[in-house]
Design brief:
Elements lengths: L34 E12 L2 E13 L4 E5 L6 H8 L7 E6 L2 E2 L5 H11 E4 L11 H11 L5 H11 L15 H13 L5 E5 L7 H18 L2 E5 L3 H6 L2 E6 L2 E2 L1
Parallel strand pairs: 3-8, 3-9, 6-7, 7-8
Antiparallel strand pairs: 1-2, 1-4, 4-5, 9-10
Helix pairs in contact: 3-4, 3-5, 4-5, 5-6
The chain binds adenosine-5'-triphosphate (ATP) and magnesium ion (MG).
The site of adenosine-5'-triphosphate has 13 residues, from β1, β2 and α1.
Length: about 250
Amino acid sequence: MPDFPHATANFIPDSPASDNRGRHPATASGDAAAIAVTGLTKRVADASGELTILHSVDFTVQKAETLAIVGASGSGKSTLLGLLAGLDTPSDGKVLIDGTDIFALDEDGRASLRKAKLGFVFQSFQLLPHLTAVENVMLPLELAGDGDARPKAEAMLGRVGLSSRLKHYPKYLSGGEQQRVALARAFVTQPPLLLADEPTGSLDAATGEAVIALMFELNREHGSTLVLVTHDPAMAARCGRTITIAAGRLV
Ligand SMILES: Nc1ncnc2c1ncn2[C@@H]1O[C@H](COP(=O)(O)OP(=O)(O)OP(=O)(O)O)[C@@H](O)[C@H]1O
Ligand SMILES: [Mg+2]
């Protein structure tokens, strides 16, 4: 049996007195909306020809806003969120993140913008299987050159209730535990924009409530913008605004 460190400090990683928010070289403007989406369309080839998953979607999210995206299964929510993060490319339309047209950037440019501004929680967690829980959470900090990656990662795992699972590999974690590691990984760099796909989908009510509280706490502490895909009416109700997507269109 591996031994687990129990003495994880019960503190929030220090928020830097002056962070780099809005100062990334790829950034256009401090006054821009957090997200501006225009005419966003996604078509894919399928057996019967072409399938349109998103039909010319338009919306804007202001900085520090909390937005819920709701809709039936298969309506296009995950596709939309992936496009907002530049993880997928649209067939048509634009996504501006803090004023920067992300599809005008090359892949490296999008990667550096994501690193500077964005936390993403995937519906399927997407933890790296060969890294432990704490190593998964350390990764974005290390990529950003943070010298305090380990204590910050341990502290964030503490906030999602996983201090006793630091050295577990993902395959030895339950679904809800993996989800909490994924949330810790997305939060740990305190990104100005957090995109989360069903962040409480695998959690029991009490843990889900704790994770929701944490997300809104970070939103308040850091003025971060939150965009959540959810089926949970209680979570949607806590967001400042809800948009509904049906068969790839905003309703
Ligand atoms: N690469 C692809 N090729 C073909 N069809 C796709 C592709 N990606 C997504 N789809 C289809 O597009 C639709 C929207 O998928 P998406 O994952 O965005 O739905 P969702 O709203 O997130 O659903 P859920 O609530 O079940 O997670 C689905 O019908 C899906 O099968
Ligand atoms: Mg989905």
